[in-house]
């Protein structure tokens, strides 16, 4: 058996490296927010006539067809691939399915997934991280193992992939997507955009992933519900790559305000009380690299020339948790607003906090290595480490969220953990 396993792995590597025609590769799943649906996305290096997923509970006895999009990298060689998207509908919530994808020109291996549980009375589990590349992807092996052992219901990758997806005329992006396939082919791989995706107006990010309501803006901002949480993915890059158009800031702001208004309606917040935002560049950080988050008036926090700042908006609508990356380190903040700490109490700072909680988790591993810290803790910084690793998060119920930081440097040791407790969710001015 060991010999056969070795031969199989070598065969997969050769197929991938030779870009073998219609053979499916870079397979990954995504949620739509509907527990009866799942999206399967993959690439082929030649055009195929069909995009098909065959799936079932015990046998591959149901087929669904999808779409094919030609994607051409903006580099000199015009590296071309075909991106396939298939939405599976009519799933039974919490049912495990087997599947493969492809066509008569080539089929993938058989993978499996479990459809999202229905309703809000359950406890979804996540792996959360940003800034993971091909080189020095320290956390990828642990994430592969934990995923295949069934520890997660979804992955949240908070921007910056591959370093960079457009490098080597897009071949680096291909290698990264193959690298995460042993994770993303089993559980939904939910993302937000980072600064390392900026090439060609974020074309690799827009074309390679299929997030909820993809047709609206190709993954740049969206939201979805899972269990007792409403999760919002935003683009912090709108504030920095204004060469792609100032209207992107306005459009996201208008959408975000409307989404928060809808999510905070009493009939919606009672079902999904936890509002969680994920964006790449933080509002705050105590790193020593002079990034935007090290400044007192960071652009993400206060806005572009004073417009479209996010901190006041999130405070007004009672966002509970803000997850960031970009800094190649881990940092947990006290509940903070306008640079002031608003702990629940001295003894229990995360019990009924009076402002959002921020977590920065950008240390999954990449070729740029670590980011250092300023010598002294800032008043709003509670805990920080440079260890490579990732965050585990479980939304326990309507009142409790548990988070812990895993150190890959220390062999999976948990180096930090918190439980956020909220007896009431809503605008902080009314708590």
- List low-confidence stretches: 1-19
- What is the overall pLDDT average? 94
User: Can you count the helices?
Assistant: 9
Instruction: Name the structural class.
Output: alpha+beta
Radius of gyration: 21 Å
Overall number of strands: 28
Distance from N terminus to C terminus (CA atoms, Å) equals 61 Å
Strand order of the largest sheet: 15-16-17-20-24-21-25
What form results from the Cα inertia axes? globular
> What percentage of the residues does DSSP assign to strands (E)?
25-35%
Largest sheet: 7 strands, mixed
Query: What share of the residues lie within helices?
Result: 10-25%
Please describe the topology of this protein.
Layout: H1 2-17, E1 25-30, E2 38-44, E3 52-56, E4 62-65, E5 67-72, E6 80-88, E7 96-103, E8 106-107, E9 111-114, E10 125-129, E11 132-133, H2 140-148, E12 154-158, E13 161-162, H3 171-184, E14 189-192, H4 199-208, H5 214-217, E15 222-226, E16 229-233, H6 247-263, H7 266-269, E17 274-278, H8 299-302, E18 303-304, E19 307-308, H9 311-316, E20 321-324, E21 330-333, E22 336-337, E23 340-341, E24 357-361, E25 381-385, E26 389-395, E27 400-407, E28 413-421
Parallel strand pairs: 10-12, 11-13, 12-14, 16-17, 17-20, 20-24
Antiparallel strand pairs: 1-2, 2-6, 3-4, 3-7, 5-6, 7-8, 7-9, 10-26, 15-16, 18-19, 21-24, 21-25, 22-23, 26-27, 27-28
Helix pairs in contact: 2-3
Give a structural overview.
- With 431 residues, this protein is an alpha+beta fold.
- Helix content is 19%, strand content 31%.
- The strands form 7 sheets. It has a 7-stranded mixed β-sheet, with no helix packed on it. Strands 14-12-10-26-27-28 form a 6-stranded mixed β-sheet, with no helix packed on it.
- Helix 2 packs parallel to helix 3.
- The longest helix is centred in the middle third of the chain and has 17 residues.
- 47% of the residues are buried.
- The N terminus is likely disordered.
């Amino acid at each position: 058996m060991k010999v056969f396993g070795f031969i199989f792995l070598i065969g997969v590597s050769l197929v991938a490296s030779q870009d073998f025609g219609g053979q499916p590769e870079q397979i990954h799943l995504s949620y739509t927010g509907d527990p009866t649906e799942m999206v399967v996305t993959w690439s082929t290096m030649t055009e195929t006539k069909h995009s098909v997923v065959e799936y079932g509970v015990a046998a591959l006895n149901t087929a669904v067809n999808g779409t094919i999009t030609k994607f051409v990298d903006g580099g000199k060689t015009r590296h071309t691939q075909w991106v396939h998207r298939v939405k599976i509908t009519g799933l039974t919530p919490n049912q495990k399915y087997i599947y493969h994808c492809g066509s008569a020109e080539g089929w993938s291996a058989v993978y499996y997934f479990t459809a999202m549980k229905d309703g809000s009375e359950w406890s979804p589990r996540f792996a959360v991280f940003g800034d993971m590349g091909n080189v020095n992807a320290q956390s990828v092996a642990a994430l592969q193992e934990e995923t295949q052992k069934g520890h997660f219901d979804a992955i949240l990758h908070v921007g910056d992939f591959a370093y960079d997806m457009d490098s080597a005329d897009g071949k680096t992006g291909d290698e990264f997507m193959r690298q995460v396939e042993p994770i993303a082919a089993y559980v939904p791989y939910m993302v937000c955009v980072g600064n390392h995706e900026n090439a060609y107006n974020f074309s690799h990010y827009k074309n390679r992933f299929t997030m909820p309501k993809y047709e609206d803006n190709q993954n740049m901002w969206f939201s979805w519900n899972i269990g007792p949480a409403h999760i919002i993915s935003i683009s912090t890059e709108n504030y920095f790559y204004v060469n792609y158009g100032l209207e992107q800031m306005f459009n996201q702001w208008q959408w975000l305000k409307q989404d928060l208004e809808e999510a905070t309606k009493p009939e919606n917040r009672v079902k999904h009380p936890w509002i969680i935002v994920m964006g790449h560049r933080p509002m705050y950080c105590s790193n020593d690299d002079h990034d935007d988050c090290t400044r007192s008036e960071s652009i993400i926090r206060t806005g572009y020339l004073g417009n479209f700042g996010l901190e006041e908006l999130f405070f007004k609508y009672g966002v509970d948790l803000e997850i960031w990356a970009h800094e190649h380190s881990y940092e947990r903040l006290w509940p903070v607003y306008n640079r002031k700490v608003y702990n629940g109490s001295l003894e229990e700072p995360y019990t009924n906090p009076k402002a959002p909680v921020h977590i920065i988790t950008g240390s999954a591993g990449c070729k740029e290595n670590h980011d250092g810290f300023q010598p002294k803790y800032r008043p709003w910084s509670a805990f920080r480490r440079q260890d490579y690793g990732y965050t585990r998060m479980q939304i326990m119920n309507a009142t409790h969220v548990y988070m812990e930081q895993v150190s890959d440097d220390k062999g999976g040791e948990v180096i930090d953990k918190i439980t956020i407790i909220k007896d009431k969710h809503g605008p902080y001015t009314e708590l």
